[in-house]
Amino acid sequence: MNPTILYLTDFSKCAEHALQFLIPMAKLLEARVMVVHGIGSPAKSMTEKTPLNIFEELEAAKKGVSINLEKVTKVLNDQEVVNSSEIVQGMVSQALADYAVELKPDLILMGTVGNHALDNKLMGSLAYKMIKASTSPVMVIPINTQYQQLEHLTYATNFLPGDFKNLQFLLKLVKDETSTVDIVHVTPTEGLNPGQEQQLDALKTRIAESEFKAEVSFTLLSHQKVMEGLMAFIEDKQPQVLALASPKRNFWDRLINKSLTKKMIDRANVPMLVFTSFA
User: Fold this and answer.
1) Which three-class secondary structure state does DSSP give residue 30?
2) Rounded Cα gap, residues 222 and 234, in angstroms
3) Sorting pLDDT into bands at 50, 70 and 90, what band is 17?
4) Strand partners, 215
5) Between β-strands 272-275 and 138-142, what pairing exists: parallel, antiparallel or unpaired?
6) Are 169 and 137 spatial neighbours (Cβ–Cβ below 8 Å)?
């Protein structure tokens, strides 16, 4: 069965921009794209409306959404990307997160506004909900990035069990064997503890024994502030994608902190691919 990419759209410019990443990735993965938009309840208090009023408003909203979905699917059809579309209804962020959990796509992709991507009112909160709720990788595309064939990627590791599996997925997206993947670990201490050294050696061994379609390098950075160290690395290396494995109550909860998020997006300006499953 071909993989599935769940593309979440609010029909904004940032969502439209994400199509330039979605289309080549769908082709690389030979994936089917599910285009999904969420609509909420009518704006005014439900107690002020009759059931007929509510029904009419929802039907009118669905009609408008269907027209926009047809425009998106036409773009995909013109690019010969297999796709289908669906409208989900409810509290938008939660309804879409529930839909993603049920669908279990191979990748979730969405656009964001860029400079304050995860502070965006709808798509930012949705990105956070997806990462919290779903076990699928989530890719967030800032509007101020341009797609090129992926040749240089960074994978930030905290030595989690799923690192090798995540790297295998990541390497499906790269251009060819001339591509590079920088694996980086930022630690506030000097060096690694024995357990981390053992995990790093195991990861290096698995990579060496595998036929990876890229040149892989390892970097260990010591920095009192892990996020600042990672941002400095990104500024230096200028990867086309930053990938990371994110425990839901650890790394990502720190990353979602508003001030750190703004600093990271403003300075890094890079699409992020977040893995949340570590099996």
Assistant:
1) coil
2) 15
3) very high
4) 180
5) antiparallel
6) yes
Token code pair at residue 83: 């796709």
DSSP character string of 118-176:
GGSTTHHHHHHHHHHH-SS-EEEEETT-----B-EEEEE----TTHHHHHHHHTTSBSS
Site of tokens 């609509």: 39
The rounded radius of gyration (Å) of the Cα atoms in the chain is 20
Closest to 107 measured CA to CA, from 32, 182, 162? 32
Torsion of CA 224, 225, 229, 235, to 10 degrees: -140
The per-type count for the chain, helices as H runs and strands as E runs, is 10, 10
For 99-148, the pLDDT digits (tens) are 999 999 999 999 876 444 444 445 556 777 787 788 899 998 988 888 98
Amino acid type, 12: S
Listing DSSP states for 4-26 in one string gives EEEEE--SSHHHHHTHHHHHHHH
